[in-house]
Design goal:
Helices cover 32% and strands 21% of the residues. The chain is α/β, with parallel strands linked by helices. One of its GO terms (molecular function) is metal ion binding.
Length: 569
Amino acid sequence: MKKIWKKKGEDLLMAQSFIYKETAVNQWIWTEENQEPEKLYARATIENIKEALKEHENVTVVSAQWEPVHDDWKEVFRVVLSEEGYGAHPATIQVFCPLDWNGRFLACTGGGIRTHHIYEILGRENRIVMPFNAVANGFAAANTDGGVPGDVFCFGLDEETKKIDYELILNLAYRSTHSMAVIAKKVIEAVYGEKPAYSYMQGASGGGRQTLTEAQLYPEDFDGFWAVDPAINWNEMIVSDTWGMLVMNQEEHVVAPGKMEVFRREAIRQNGGRYDFIETSEPLVFDPASCVGMESADGCITEEDARVMKLIFDGPETRDGHAIWYGFRPGTHFWSSGAIGEQGGGCNIRSLADGSYQPIMNSMFESIVDAWVMRDMQYDWSKVDYRGLEEFYKEAVRVTGCLECNNPDLYQAEQSGAKILLTHAVNDDTIPSDGTIDYYKRVVAYMGQESGVQKFLRLFMTPGGGHTDITSPGLNLTTSIGMTALMKWVEEGEAPELLDGVQYDFEQKAPLLTGKVSLYSLDNPGRCVEVAETSAYAKRDAYDAAQRKDELFMLKKEKTDRYYGKTEE
């Protein structure tokens, strides 16, 4: 049993006793039962919350009540707040205080262009902390909708005037997240009678962008940050996700999905992959021309197929040949299988009735850029040429540059004492992983020696994987693995050198592969070691990981957040 003490100002606080005990992919802490619940019941009142927030005149307590016992937790005191912010967009902040508290605060984020998540499933099949599993681990938790109600994935454009609501974009960028952190801590102190001993923030994808932005701008808000597969380079990411479609349209040659799969598998085979992924984050050597003449489910691969695939792998560039950003790595299943949008991923292929294929844009990214950059919700992306993409990129940087979190100046974070765990799946199918490596290299170049940077920032590139999920081929980090590593680094000074990784099968409720992922450094890019098959691996039938992911999502989609994300009537 651990009793962790931490000095904060003049107060000596004791965190609730707990044990690190991983019992599920998102359950890593067992917290002792509250022996004096009556005292907590007495403090958990609307009057107490209002008194704690009296200096925040723009915050109204909508409700504060104990929620009934749930499948995932015991009793939780849920506080719903309305914060009047910028541009007349009230944000809903929710704070969750479990009866059995581990003495810590864990802030939850969103994804895409949302500052909080809608569906509970994202906290189970993905490495994303949601309020329900934060409180199940004994954390007080919080999130905010950033002033964007409902479950829309496109907002901020007045289609009549063509004006953009920049206040909402700035809320998404950084304002709402910081405000949530400040307000939630006051609520937590009011409920428990003491401040959190440690505060953490975790997020993936767009939530990873939120997390890293907070670490750059307000590092004093939290003791530890974990940014997973983060959208660090926001506008460059969108250009990369548009590139495959653009190349096929401009070159007037569509590479069929069956052929793309052959290129993927050959890249893995030629680089020594044993389990449908490449076991290192080092740069690959792969020439698509080596696949010419091979058979696929969509026919024999031609020289034109190889030429177009090379353009796609090389990544987006200007008309005069200068690189704009990175492409998706060979070996990545980046077509029609991403985690976000009806058609996700970096190059989406639609099957037509006549048996042909049509490249289309990622549906979520399309709605974002249609609204914020093109200001035309009916914009026809099939007509965009290379010059048009270049001009689009320049405009996107001008309009939504605030969503970038690629500032290499982490001096404030270093001085605050906070720890930043940065992780990215090499074969992320939505955000090119080389962008995260690029950011790390720029941080080292700006801050000085890598040994100094690694005292507060550590990067792990997990071989294989997909976008935020733990079922794709590769050694994936579960929520339990990452949060345990971050907490031990923050609270015990145990900086992670190796992290456990798994490929998980939810049908068998067991890992298929296990191994360890090494710390990334400039001289020694990360790789996995001790990769081993489990008994579940032998039992598993062949399956398409991306299809399974979609099936799991649709199966549980009806299970929306009863406990977060909606303001009470």
